[in-house]
Amino acid sequence: MPPTSQQRLQQRFLRLALVAAVTLVTKPSYAFDPADLQTLMQTRQCLNCDLRDADLRHLDLSEADLQGSNLENANFFRSRLDGANLARTNLKRANLGEASLQGAVLNIADLSRTSLLRADLTGASLYGAIMDYTYIEGTLFIDALLSRARLSRARIVSADFTGATLCGAEMSYGEYRRDCRSVEKLEAVEGSADSEL
Fold first, then answer.
1. Element (H, E) at 139
2. Contact 102, 80 (CB under 8 A)
3. What gap in Å lies between CA 22 and CA 67, rounded to an integer?
4. Is 28 inside a domain boundary?
């Protein structure tokens, strides 16, 4: 026997009540920590923050300090990160397309599977950066430090490495060995500074 119109109305009401209850009880789900995002926006300093999947497009984050932060899958499309400290960050699968990172520090950052499409890394430091399967097209690495960076699996379509230091960088054709004296001096200075700590 088919349900009566009153029974159908009751079923519909119960479904709506269930949807409303679930909507009211659940909080919005973020992959990133909203408190970390607020700290970054207010102070431009957020060490070891969790900003996974954060939408940071078109923002001016110049000189921001994000050392050690988890920025996996974050979207920095057309953002300004000039002079930012991104050392030891997790930038896996992040979108840095058309972003400006002039003079930024990305030492030992993991940029695996990141898009650097038309990004400007002029004068940036990427010492020991991991760039496995990173997409590099129209990217500027002018005067950048890429020593000991891992580029062997990067997808380099086109890039400008004019004046870049690539000593010890892993490239698809082997380890790069040019301009090593300046890097050896840098490592000697860093080594003596570490021994003083």
1. strand 135-140
2. no
3. 38
4. no
In a domain, 14, yes or no: no
Question: pLDDT tens digit string along 67-90?
Answer: 999 999 999 999 999 999 999 999
**In a 10 Å sphere around its CB, with 0-12 CB exposed, 13-18 middle and 19+ buried, how is residue 30 labelled?**
middle
- Residue partners of 130: CB distance under 8 A and separation at least 6: 108, 109, 110, 111, 112, 149, 150
Global pTM reads 0.76
Q: What percent of the residues of the chain are helix, what percent strand, and what percent coil, each to the nearest 5? A: 25, 20, 55
Residue 3 inside a domain? The answer is: no
Count of domains in the chain?
1
Question: Domain of 168?
Answer: 34-197
Whether 9 is covered by a domain: the verdict is no
Strand, helix or coil at 9? helix
